[in-house]
Predict the structure.
Amino acid sequence: MSRHAHKSLVFLFLRRMRMPLVILISAYAIATVGFTLIPGVDDQGNPWRMSFFQAFYVVSYTGSTIGFGEVPYPFSEGQRLWTMVSIYLTVIAWLFSIGSIVSLLQDPAYTRALRRARLAWKVRNLNQPFYLVCGYGDTGRMLTSALTDRGYQVIVVEHNQEKVEALEVVEFLAPVTAFCMNANLPDNLIEAGLRSRWCTGVIAVTGEGHVNLKIAISATLLNHKVAVYASADTRNDADNMRSFNTDCVVNPVEEYVRRLELAIDKPDLFRLYHWLNSGPGARLARSTPIPRGKWIVCGYGRVGRAVYQLLRERGMDVTVIHPDPEQAGCPHGSVIGRGTQAEELSAAGVEDAVGIVASTSDDADNLSILITARALNPDLFHVVLENGLSSHALFRAAEPDFLGQPSIVVAGTILSRISSGLVEPFIQQLLQLNNDTGRDALARFLRHQNDHPPEFSSGRISNRRSPALARALSAGQRITVGNLLADPSNWRARLHLEVVMIRKQKEDILFPPDDLPLEMGDRLLLAGRDGEAQRLQAVLENDQRLEYLLTGRDRQQGLFWQWLERRSSSHRSNG
C-alpha cells in the first residue's frame, strides 16, 4: 500500500468514525466509573467497591449482551439498577457505532479509497514486466487487448468510472489492473507503478493532448529507464514530447495525412506501410489508385485543413464545405453547410468532382456525407474520417475507398514500435523507397504472410543474447543471413521469417541479401509469422541445433551418443 493511499484511508476512517468512537468510549467510561462508585456488600456483610478492572470486566460482558454472571459477590440493589443503565447505554452506543461502520463501508469515497489502497498494494508486489496505459478509450482498449495477448500485464489509469467498470468485466489473456484516477497527476502515476523496476513502458493515450504531454514528461523525469509512447493532438505537443526524448510520438492528423499522401504518390508502398502500422487485426488494403481532379473537403478542422493543403500541393482543385467558413478561415469560394444536404454538395460541384473527403468531427455527419454524395455521383472516390469505433460497423457497411481511423492509427503505430526499437528507423527508411521498391518489399513479406501483418522482433549477436551463434563466429565460422533463416526442423527449408534490417556499427542495411555474412554486435530486425522468431531464438542458444542448421548434421547429445560417434569416427579412420 502506498503511503498516500494509506494516509487517505486512515484519515477518512477516523473522520467518519470519530463521533461513534467518542460515544462508545464515553458509554463504557461512564458505566465503568459508575460501578466503582456504587457500593455493594461482601459475604461478611461489609461494604465493598469494585476495582476499575472488575468494573470494566462487568461492563464488557454486559455491554456485549453476553450476560455472564460471574462476580465476586451478589449485587446490591444499586448495582443492579446501574447494571440495567449500563446495558441500555452500551447497547445503544454499539448499535450507533455498528450502523456508522456499515454506513462507512457503503460510502463511495471510502470504497474508492479502499480499492485504491488494495490496488496499490497489488502493484507494489508485481514481479513481472508490465505496461502502464493511461487512458481507456478506443486506443487504450486496443492497446490493452494487444499487450495482454502478447503476455504482458497491463495497468490502466482512467478517470472515467464507467470505463473502469466496463474494463473489469472483460476477460484478458494476462492480468489487467485498473485505477480510476487522473493520470495528469504525477503522484497517481507513481501509485500506479511508474517507478517500479518492472514497468516496461508508459503509454499516454488519454485523448487530450496536453494531458498526454504531461504524462510523457512525468514518465521521462520520474523513471529514466522506462520507454514512453504518446499520442499528440498538435505539432507543438509532438515537438515538446520529442524534446523530452519520448520514444514514440504519434500525431493522428499527421499520420492520417501521411498515409493519404502515400496512397496518392506511392500506392503500393502505402499498402505496405498501412499494413505494418495498423495493429495485429489489420488487413492488407486493396490497391485503389486515388484519382486526380476536382475534390470536395467537408469540414475544415485540423484534419480537413491538412487534407486540403495536401490536395492543393498535388495540384488538385479543392472546394471546402463548412458551417462557418469565415470563422474557420476557409479558403475563398467555400460553401456554407455541413455537406450532408444534396443542395450543399451540388453547390460545391459534386457532379463534376472525382473525390470527396468527409472529415468532420461527427461520425453521423461523415456517414451522411458519404451516402448523399454517392447518390449524386456514384463514381466519386470517398475518403472518410471515423472519429470513434462505436460506429465502425456502419462505416464498414458504407465501404468507403479510404477510411481514416485515428484510434487504430495510434494503437497500430505504438504497437509496432513496442516490438523493437529498430522498427522506427526501419519505417523511416521504408518511407524513402520508391513505389516499385515498395511493391517488391510487399511481395517479400507476402511470401510468408496471409492477410495478417507480420510480427516484428529483434535480436543482437552477442555472447549473452545468442551464445551459440557468438561461439561459432568467434571460432571463425562464416554464417550468413540465409543460414540463419533455415528451418530448425528441416535445414533445407526456410522459416516463414525475414531479416528486414541489420544495424551494423556504421550503417543500417535494409532487406539484406541472404549471402550477407553476420558479425558480432549486429542487431537484427525480423518480421514474419507469429512464433517463428521464437524458433530461431532456440537455435541461437544451442550449439547442436545451430550445427544442424548450418550443416544438416544432427549431432546427438549425451555421453552414450558421443561415445558412439567417436567410435564410428575411429573405425572410419582405421578403415
About this structure: The longest strand covers residues 497-503. The radius of gyration is 36 Å. The chain has 24 helices and 20 strands. Residues 128-250 form a domain with the Rossmann fold fold (CATH 3.40.50.720).
